[in-house]
Amino acid sequence: MDDILDEMTSAQDLKKFEREYNITLLNGNLDPKVQFQYAWCLVRSKYSSDIYKGILLLKNLLDTSSMERRDCMYYLAIGHARIKEYNKALEYINLFSTTEPGNTQIEHLESLIRNKLREKRDRNGSLIAIAGITSLISIFLMKK
């Protein structure tokens, strides 16, 4: 299975679903399915502002509609992971897992997110170590 966190929506799909979303919104009859499809495209965008907007639309659906609940949690996890909010993504993974324990798709996503979180921690740890060594060298050189 490819890395779902790297999948991007096409500009054509984004425009298509944005148009459909805006039409139903202007008509005052917003269809949850249309909102989900637009949010789905947004969280898979290459732009973080789109991802944030998609997250808001998915959260709204999760709070107001029983439709697409499972998929909303899944794509909320993906959206948060794509903007590097890994702990928030894992919260949605855990919420999803309580409703469908043993789901292999969600287990795979959890593994990807945990790997990203581990990479981030390793990178941050390396930066802290480098900063510490640099400080020690500076102090040593200042004393000479």
From TrEMBL:
Q: Which organism is it from?
A: Ceratosolen solmsi marchali
Instruction: Name the family.
Output: Belongs to the FIS1 family.
* Pfam families linked to this entry: Fis1_TPR_C, Fis1_TPR_N
Name the UniProt record assigns to this protein: Mitochondrial fission 1 protein
Q: Which residues cross the membrane?
A: 124-142
- Which GO terms of the cellular component aspect does the record hold? mitochondrial outer membrane; peroxisomal membrane
Q: Which InterPro entries match?
A: Fis1, Fis1_cytosol, Fis1_TPR_C, Fis1_TPR_N, TPR-like_helical_dom_sf
Lineage at the top is: Eukaryota, Metazoa, Ecdysozoa, Arthropoda, Hexapoda
Annotated membrane topology is: Single-pass membrane protein
Q: Which gene encodes it?
A: LOC105361612
Any idea where this protein resides? Mitochondrion outer membrane
Key words of the record: Membrane, Mitochondrion, Mitochondrion outer membrane, Transmembrane, Transmembrane helix
Give the record's GO biological process terms: autophagy of mitochondrion; mitochondrial fission; mitochondrial fragmentation involved in apoptotic process; peroxisome fission
